[in-house]
Amino acid sequence: MIAPRAIVDALVRVRTFDALRYPAFRLIWGGQVCTAVAVWMDQVTRGWLLYEMTGSPFHLGLIRGFQAIPLLFLSPIAGTAADRYDRKAQIIVAQSIDAALYGVMAVLIFTGQIQPWHVYATAVLAGAVGTFENPARNAMVSDAVPRHGMTNAVALNSVAFNVSRIVGPSVAGLMIALRGTGGSYVVQTLLYIFSTTWTMRLPASLAHPAGAESHHSRGVSFGRSTVDGWKACWVNREVRAGLLIVGLASLFIVPFSTLLPVFAKDILDVGASGQGLMLTAMGVGALVSAILIASIGDQVPRGLFMLGGIGLYGVAVVAVASSTWFPLTVALMVIVGVFHVSSHALVQTVVQTYAEPQFRGRTMAVFHQSHLILMIGSMMLGGLASVLGGAWAMALMAGVGTVSMGLMFLLEPVARRIR
After folding, report:
1. 264 close to 278: Cβ distance less than 8 angstroms
2. Pick from 44, 54, 145, 284: most CB atoms within 10 A?
3. What is the mean pLDDT of the chain?
4. Domains (ranges, CATH) in the chain?
5. Long-range CB pairs of 399-403, under 8 A, 24+ apart, other chains included
6. Are 212 and 358 in contact, with CB atoms under 8 Å apart?
């Protein structure tokens, strides 16, 4: 049997996995893999459980809204906490709470005591602790690898996310078939326990920002620290450009997936299985793109690739909106996945690379606010679709997104000069 250490040694010799040569990043990445698989398992399991109990599709949409509430109200606080306090401790506490929440869900299901309000309450709590965990974890990546390894490290995180998007739902479906939703939550609990164990092994040097000023010891208020973080994001031209790019993409282009059920049912006539195949195709493209970025590293002009990648992302979505032939749509979804990840991963790399160490937690909290912009974009797209129809609405929004990248190229010169 091949030892895990031998596998790691073999991987780090390949440029694609270069960041894994740093022990601290290996621990962060291993924990990321476990939590990402658990999150995707929860997406499937929670929806299945709620539909079993209520039989109402309305609840499936409502639960997603409840999960977004913590991000709206707690994200600025979480970013400040990641810069002021012990990041390692924050991750350990957050993951321990997640393990407890999933364990409670398993017990409630196996004892027959589960109620819909339990599903909603634990969703909000899990969303809250995840809001605190993500900025702390992402900020630690910047200190775990040298500056020249940032693109590779972020791309490997994207690889983990996209592999988990394929593995997580499959494992959840298997466990639900074998042991019901309770069995799935047992596996999720174990994954968070494993991730917490690895996090505990992280060096103490990663607990606080490298070279940061001690805001807390200087007596600066928590609210002032939060405002200072927002100001830092705006003043730093490279960070501001990256945040504007991801915000525009999240508003106009990324929401297209909201209308995929309409395309699958009414335009392509392929049903739910066809929609699943389209999403799988996008996942395959995303995985390929993440591996390519991890292999290329910092050898590309990231500013031009950000703008060009998202511009082509919009063009690919317009093509999807125009297609009425299912095989062509599936092929186009692979291309969509390629540009989706390439642009997003590069933006995150730029934001983390150019943010000052003492502001990285707050900067990543602002970066994750793009999820809220995505919700707004989804509502805009839904409103347009009710007036113009799904295909025209999707094409119009994506076209505006592509034009916005052209305007960024012309009006924000620093964006295209980012290396």
Report:
1. yes
2. 145
3. 81
4. 4-206 (1.20.1250.20), 222-417 (1.20.1250.20)
5. 399/314, 399/318, 400/252, 400/314, 401/248, 401/249, 401/251, 401/252, 401/253, 401/310, 401/313, 401/314, 401/317, 402/253, 402/310, 402/311, 402/312, 402/313, 402/314, 402/315, 402/318
6. yes
pLDDT in tens, 163-192: 777 777 778 778 888 888 899 899 999 999
Cα gap 240→244, rounded to integer Å? 6
* pLDDT level of residue 20 (50, 70, 90 thresholds): confident
CA distance 111 to 158: 38
Question: Whole-angstrom Cα distance, residue 245 to residue 257?
Answer: 19
Cβ-contact 151, 349 below 8 angstroms: yes
Report how far residue 97's alpha carbon sits from residue 77's, in angstroms, rounded to the nearest whole number.
18
Which of 139-153, 290-304, 392-406 is predicted with the least confidence, judged by mean pLDDT?
290-304
**What percentage of the chain has pLDDT greater than the value 90?**
20
pTM of the model: 0.74
Return d(Cα 189, Cα 99) in angstroms, integer. 5
Beta-carbon count within 10 A of 272 CB: 10
pLDDT confidence bin for 6, thresholds 50/70/90: low
| Helices 87-110 & 23-54 angle (0-180, nearest 10) | 30
Residue with tokens 């990402």: 36
